[in-house]
Amino acid sequence: MEYTYNVEAGNYALAGEASSSIKALLKKLGISGDIVRRMAIAAYEAEMNIVIHSKGGCLILKISPEELILISEDRGPGIPDIDLAMKEGYSTAPDEAREMGFGAGMGLSNMKRCADEFNIKSTVGIGTKVQIKIYLK
Amino acid sequence: MSEYYHSVTLDKDKCRGCTNCIKRCPTEAIRVRDGKARIIAERCIDCGECIRVCPYHAKIAVTDPLSSIDRFEYKIALPAPTLYGQFKDVTDINDILYAFKGLGFDYVYEVARGADYATAFVKEKLKEGHVKKPIISSACPAIVRLIQVRFPELLDNIVAVESPMEIAAQLARREFSEKKGVSEDAIGVFFITPCAAKMTSIRRPIGRKESSVDGAISMLDIFGVLASKIGHIPHTGELQKASAYGVGWANSSGECSALSIEHYLAVDGIQNVIYVLEEIENNKFPDLDFFEGLACTGGCVGGPLTFENGFVAKNRIRTLANGLEKRYITERELSLVRNSIGWEFTEPIQPKPVMKLDDDLSLAMRKMELMEKIYKSLPGLDCGSCGSPNCRTLAEDIVQGDASEFDCIFKLREKVKKLAEEMIELAEKIPTGRHGEDDEM
Questions:
Q1: Is B364 at the interface with chain A, CB within 8 A?
Q2: Partners of residue A75 on adjacent β-strands
Q3: Residue B26: which domain range?
Q4: Is B3 inside any structural domain?
């Protein structure tokens, strides 16, 4: 089963909608609370990253009885130094985002903490793709 | 004893099958089928939203009649602090408390006094380092049940302290029995309730095996008779013992004020509570220590079984509480009850995952796919005419075999149109061979 959620860049009014849908969907499927919570947090962070940093993108959720896969794919500036970007507290968020309480530099590290497998690929000037896996078994 | 008991029930004769209740229910627990509302017992949390919203008064809260106190030789009334806000021109809470003696009660014990003890016990829990933050108040039974159904992941955050009602019931029974030297079994303890949710938690308690309360009498039911006794019963001492803090529990954020904690959120109105619980579940408030969620607007003062406008009542209670002492239960007072009453939950609060599609994930996935397909074919107006609260729920009900596609009037209209077109097509076809004969006639 696969679901795609488009995420608009810079639209704070809609920000959080995709991750809310993902959470509701997983609850409906009867997936255990802890896993729903981890995926919801990871999806929210991914969604906010697209809103804050990119020129737009999407979240793709793949569900099988064995695992959940979340792919976050965006068009945008990309990340020149991934190790640095993964550091807690490091952020390149614009003032606009920080004023709203976002951009604390915890997004990617939070995603990693929620995941059983974490992969990130980024090309400067093209965009970023993050994939996480959470095992169901 | 059946698995489910609900105070909230339907008066079938009065139900017109409209869509008001199905659309307001926070757990999607109501459907209209065959022209009448039907409450899904597994899902109902007895919040009373449907009672408030039904224009035909077909949703009712079953509570105990005043006459039920006669089962017992001795009768104790446990008025919720919300009661204090129901009467105009009352300046001394004792007047309200003494009025119960005119209704046949032998003794009155304030639930607000129970709230004073609950405050002290919750404070102790807050000091324990190993509790999951934010701690969630256990005061509103509708919210506890909401968490069971919709936020099972937060069940461990609920503070394992009994409600002021349960604490007050035990203290009242003991106090009266010691004072009068009568057996505890001869005493009936009755809660004067502002809501249906409390009635249900007496019959089906959460966190304990059996309630210490023998019944619940609706505030609405006794409002008239009680009002007529106010000011007419001579006082023989102070029945009013609760502090300003305990009385304040009737209003939203009252518990938080009593606890005097800094990082808290007090939210009232069940839709608002759902909105904030979603955020808590998503870990949005890592610094939050305490969450107080009350299902009714304004807190218990907005309960569906109250008489007075909740905002007016809230103000009255604030004024009355201002005249009371701001004092906490002392360590000594606490030590006198700590080991002799049940103030802590003894039973775990179990999740009630009744919203999920299936126990088996593969099957749930198949149902979800089918549901999405059906949903896409529906008009998306969420009109509720089908008897389900919205198009998505109708799709779910169809998948679960509880509804059909043609319960949707738009789908039905489409089908009728198609049939009509087919009929016209057929009607045009049949008589062609007869035209010539007609001409000859």
A1: yes
A2: A127
A3: 8-61
A4: no
